[in-house]
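User: I'm curious whether this sequence folds into something compact or stays loose and floppy. Could you predict its structure so I can see for myself?
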Amino acid sequence: MTQTILITGGGRGIGAACAHLAARQGYQVCIGYRSDDEAASNLVRAIGDAGGTALAIRADVADEQEVERLFAEVDARCGPLDALVNNAGVLARQMRVDEMDAARIRRILDTNVVGAFLCAREAVRRMSTRHGGRGGAIVNVSSRAAVLGSAGEYVDYAASKAALDTLTIGLAKEVAGEGIRVNGVRPGLIHTTMHADGGESGRVARLQSSVPMGRGGEPEEVARAVLWLLSDQASYTTGSFIEVSGGR
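Assistant: Here's the prediction. I'll summarize afterward.
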């Protein structure tokens, strides 16, 4: 039986890598994305050209109504949901906490925390045996920033990811008896375009000497951890985290 996976923030970077790998593993892939129509279309086309099945749905996870619409479209177009990758996330230009305004902080928290909660809520409503579902798995894509703090760069982003870690632990315990496993992955310095959003496209090159393995990671390396946690090979794993950070 073909399983359905929803990947938020799936149009680029780690989300896109997860989409490619999930398609290769036989999932029907639903990609949630916020704004880049071209990237999402290209990803769907590439998965199709490789023999997989994918569709892209535009939605801003910070908006409750759009989250509800996103999941309703997945229901209508893909059938029952088996897996959610809570990957959508944003950051802002590097700065100290004493330079941040409330609007910036709210934008980070609305997407990275509120959005993740809303998507988890909708997934549980569909997967939980308490609601008549058949079970499933959720992976929250956190960050090593949640542990390291990102001082002088993105303490607000780091705090949002720490909140995501708490969601992972609490929700895992809440739904463990309802057929749902919830785990997290904490990527470190990964080669994605997200660093440019913070104003430093070369950030990985600048910091990779601080990584014990001496290099930045690739999105595909994170995707492999995500897909393992979703798989039956991780059937007794919940409320846990995999650090994909080269030892940093």
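Summary: The beta strands are 4-8, 28-33, 53-58, 83-86, 136-141, 180-187, 241-244. The radius of gyration is 17 Å.
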